[in-house]
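Q: Second attempt. The first request was missing the SMILES, so the protein and fe (ii) ion are both included now.
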Amino acid sequence: MKFAVFGDIHGNIEALQVAYDAAQQAGAEKIYHLGDLGGYSPFVNEVVDFLVEHAIEGVQGNYDETVANDREHCGCKYEDPIQEEMANKSFFWTKEHASEKAKKYMRGLPVSRSFSAYGDKVLLFHATPSKNNLYWYEDRPEKFFHEMAGKTDADIFIYGHTHKPYRKDIENKIFINAGSVGKPKDGDPRACVTLVDITPDDVQVEFLRVPYDVEKAAQAIVENGMPEYFADRLREAR
Ligand SMILES: [Fe+2]
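A: Got both inputs this time. The predicted holo structure:
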């Protein structure tokens, strides 16, 4: 079975549209999203409408949970005070502009989804199996991978949150970070579409990078009254 995974879309409808077309062209039979539907770019309502319209099922990210439940904080991590100030602006902007319909959708998302494929259990979640705002980077020690794997009986783990894609095979487990459709942070501004192809004796993962009009998306951030800071970060993919 071949399916596509859309990590962290973050209000970027331009990127979502091209990601969808690319997944279709690649022959994905199904598409899943990994949550974090709003924030940093303005089109949270359009993103939710698109997912519903195209029957793209997914899981709840920390941003979805905190926006939809009107929390005081998005649960994100900051590297410096400016980033914190900008992140707060983005969070309050999103809470104010997300429609009731979008919030209801985000509130209703499950924290994880699982299915089986040729005897393997596939588990999708936003960040880790037990906490939705922990950053599971590729360079975490192997011990961390074992610890996370030990929380479930899954064989194939698919998640996002860091916006940096990778695949790591440890013993019989496969760990796939699907990167980000709408806000990559790995230096490549193109949308990341993760294709997973599971056959009876193999699991193939491809991180397809899809070009789109990043400049148009960056300008929409500013035009809609969100910080220019995020437009620059979109252009630079950091
Ligand atoms: Fe995110």
